[in-house]
Write a structure and sequence with these properties.
single chain, 362 residues, alpha+beta, five-stranded antiparallel beta sheet, four-stranded parallel beta sheet, 13 strands, globular, binds adenosine monophosphate
Length: 362
């Protein structure tokens, strides 16, 4: 485990007038880099050859480091190069998708914005639920064994990313039937089924509010944007008549292909704001100093306007890409041209100015 002192020693050697914002070239990198450029900070992109076109078309990366695989970030050579560039890493969904929690907490000796200790609370579904429940949020019920299924559930695979391989079931019998089918189709393994997480399927609409927690501004939690996802195949099933749906026996899958901006019914906003604050406050107790920077709650809102939270991401989510430039919620607080990538860069700039950089990195 890399400790705060280890990171501090690295930062002590940094030239603070030449800080660079660095991240993996995917997910929300354009958002992060554009934000840094808007705040006058240099940017370094670790990217695969096939994706370099993005940074030719959108010139937001000052330096491109081409790798064959994102795990090269763990190599001492690359890390030394990043330290020489005075790089601050901004973690996003591809970090947790392509690197393990252990690798992120033990092998990455480059300062990273955020609280590494929270990664453990987030990576494990049980501890994540504990965190959210203790914060007073409403959660979908969970079931220990398929035999306990007494309502519609969503079966989630351990470590599954973006809903890949999720499926729905109404009973133990249906669960077993579907699991067998998916194994046969090579979509999941027997081991996946044994460690599956069974969660009540909440019927409602998905809302993903994105917040920013500023630890250098007394832990204030800002609501900066809101989105919903465009998921295939689940968002396409309604396009065909129910009779055909039954005939071809479709299993909805949730592979994300994009996001839509969303503005919430205004009377729901106070609760969404309280939820963000409560989650951060609980995080301060569980893993001080709590959430540093961006986070997102994944929620479903039902017809009686109850807000169920089924997951938290304690980092920037790709849904904030809808706000590049501006979004209504960022506008309400900051006026034009504020968005998550820029808010991150602003925090880094303020931290450097106030000699508090050590308080936003881990
Ligand atoms: P990628 O680098 O595109 O493979 O994404 C890394 C992780 O982030 C995967 O688990 C994706 O499912 C997730 N992800 C990527 N883009 C989005 C998006 N627009 N909305 C939600 N999740 C996303
Ligand atoms: P996740 O991988 O947790 O982001 O979930 C992928 C998708 O599954 C979400 O975007 C939702 O559409 C759906 N989903 C996840 N959990 C639930 C739930 N408990 N109730 C209803 N829909 C859910």
């Amino acid at each position: 485990m890399i400790e705060a002192q280890d990171v501090q020693r690295v930062v002590d050697k940094y030239d603070l007038s030449k800080i660079a914002v660095c991240t993996l070239g995917s997910h929300s990198s354009l958002n992060i880099f554009k934000g840094a450029k808007d705040e006058g900070i240099r940017t370094v992109c670790i990217c695969k050859e096939k994706d370099a076109i993005m940074y030719q078309k959108y010139p937001v990366a000052d330096e491109l480091i081409i790798v064959n695989d994102f795990t090269e970030l763990l190599s001492e050579n690359l890390q030394e190069r990043l330290r020489r560039l005075n790089a601050i890493l901004i973690p996003h969904g591809s970090f947790t998708a392509y690197l393990s929690t252990e690798q992120l907490t033990c092998s990455l000796k480059v300062p990273m914005m955020g609280n590494r200790k929270l990664l453990h609370w987030e990576a494990n579904r049980k501890s994540q639920e504990e965190w959210l429940r203790q914060a007073g949020l409403l959660l979908p019920a969970t079931f220990k064994s398929p035999d306990d299924i007494d309502r519609l559930v969503i079966a989630k695979l351990q470590g599954a990313k973006g809903g890949r391989g999720y499926f729905l079931a109404n009973s133990a019998k249906e669960f077993n039937k579907k699991a067998d089918e998916m194994i046969k189709r090579g979509l999941i393994t027997r081991q996946d089924v044994e460690t599956v997480h069974l969660q009540e399927y909440v019927l409602g609409v998905n809302v993903y509010p994105s917040y920013f927690s500023s630890t250098i501004d007394n832990g204030d939690v800002e609501l900066l944007s809101m989105d919903r996802r465009y998921e295939t195949a689940v968002d396409s099933i309604g396009k065909i008549p129910a009779s055909e749906q039954l005939e071809i026996n479709i299993n909805p899958t949730y592979t994300v292909v994009g996001n839509f901006p969303l503005v919430l019914r205004e009377s729901l906003l106070p609760e969404v704001m309280r939820m963000g604050e409560a989650v951060h406050k609980k995080a301060v107790e569980l893993a001080p100093p709590g959430i540093i920077g961006p986070f997102c709650l994944e929620t479903v809102i039902t017809d009686d306007l109850k807000i169920y939270t089924f997951e938290i991401s304690a980092r920037i989510v790709a849904g904030t890409n809808i706000g590049i430039g501006t979004s209504p919620y960022a506008y309400l607080r900051y006026g034009e041209n504020m968005y998550m990538g820029r808010r991150i860069a602003l925090e880094i700039k303020n931290a450097v100015k106030q000699k508090q950089l050590q308080n936003i990195i881990a």
